[in-house]
Give the backbone structure.
Amino acid sequence: MVLEEQRRLFQNARVLNLAQFRNIPLRGGFSIVEVRLTSRSLLDPLGRPAAAQTLIQGNQFHIVLREGMDEEEFSVSLYHEILEAATVAAENPPESVMEFNEGDFEESARSAHARYGMASATSLNEMLEYFGFED
C-alpha cells in the first residue's frame, strides 16, 4: 500500500512538474520555496477540507497540495494560495486585495487561470502584478 501511494505521488509530481516551482522569486519580495503533494487530508484554519495549505515563513512560501487534483485544479489552487499568502504576509497589501475573503481569493484564482493559463512562475507574477504587488 505504501509503495503504491509513493508511486502515485511520484507520477503526479512528474506530470505536474513541481520542480518548476522550487525557489521562485515573486513580486512583493516573496518566494516559493517548494510545492509538494500529499495524500493526507488537508484542512483550512476552520477545519474544513482544503485542496492546499501554505506555510508562510517570513517572505517564503511552502505549499502543500492534495494529490489527485487534475491540472486545472492544481493551477487554480496555486493561484489561490499565492494570492492569499502574499496578501496575508504583506506588510501593506495592495488596496485591491485588502478586503478579500476566501470566496474572493477563489474567484480571483479562477479568473487568473482563465486569463494566464496554467500556473507558472511567470503567470503567478503576472497575477500578483495585476493585483498591485510591486517588485
User: Anything to note?
Assistant: Residues 71-89 form the longest helix (19 residues). Residues 11-15 have pLDDT under 50 and may be disordered. The two ends are 46 Å apart (CA to CA).
